[in-house]
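Question: does this match?
>
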Amino acid sequence: MIDLRSDTVTKPGKAMLDAMLNAELGDDVFGEDPTVKKLEEKVAAMFSMEAGLFCPSGTMTNQIAVKAHTQPLDEIICDKICHIYNYETGGWAFHSGVSIRLTNGDNGRMTVPQIEELIQPDFDWLPNTSMVAIENTVNKGGGSVYTIDEMKAISDFCRSKKLIYHLDGARIFNALAALNKKPGDLAGLFDSISVCISKGLGAPVGSVLLGSKAFIKKSRKLRKVMGGGMRQSGLLAAACIYALDNNVSRLTEDHERAGKLAETLTGLSWVKQVLPVATNIVIFEVSSSAKIAELLAAKGIRVQPFSPTLVRMVTHLDFTEAMLEETLDVLKGLAVTS
């Protein structure tokens, strides 16, 4: 079975498993797991941030950031298709008691004028605009990418308005690969960054939240109350370290394969449109996503219905060149009736 539902379906190879089995361990809730500390320091240094916090998921790192940066009656600005708003179970309301205002960006990418328009005036009957959160790449935007200049423009604006600026970097390494940039190119732009290592980089579990030392100290307590204290989590951190050391440079292969999928899909009569492809996510429109998913599953290919009419394919390190060729052949030969 060829699985293109997500880049979260990858499984550790032998070398990653060996790294996990050989990890030096301790109790991370007591701050005593050396491998977790190594990962947190490594990711913080990569992005030129003061400190990091290893968490089970990107949803947790995002929700900790919202909680740590805000208080009830605050409001955060993000795009209408962002992950924080759509796929985190309304955690911003549940955990933090904040509201959200939504922009209508270009495939999820907000602009400074759009953000400025949503800042609330200081009236008793309105929430306090306190935070801006962007996602890079944008999942529902087909893996669309904010450039460094676009992120910096928002950063400068947030500084001028005294707004917290958070990056949901679930696929930030895909974005950096597409831009031919390094993590250090984001230095000084954000108050906090969530870096997921269990997607394109192939680790089985884990995200790292980055920020100031004071912010991370506060975030550790929030991680604990959310149930994120994982004890001998160096087993998982070792996989993340291996992924960072070995799987970043190959992300462009995923992007190239996604581009080939998009090129083939664009020429098929039953595909209405394909969103622009910049990284490893391909989203295309059909008459019935459930029908296409069923037809492809019968041919040994799993895809993700993303709406009644949208289908998502995500390339990843377990999707080989041979699998790509097989998928292209299946797509070209798929018998789709209206």
Notes: The chain has a mean pLDDT of 97. The longest strand covers residues 128-135. The first helix runs from residue 14 to 21.
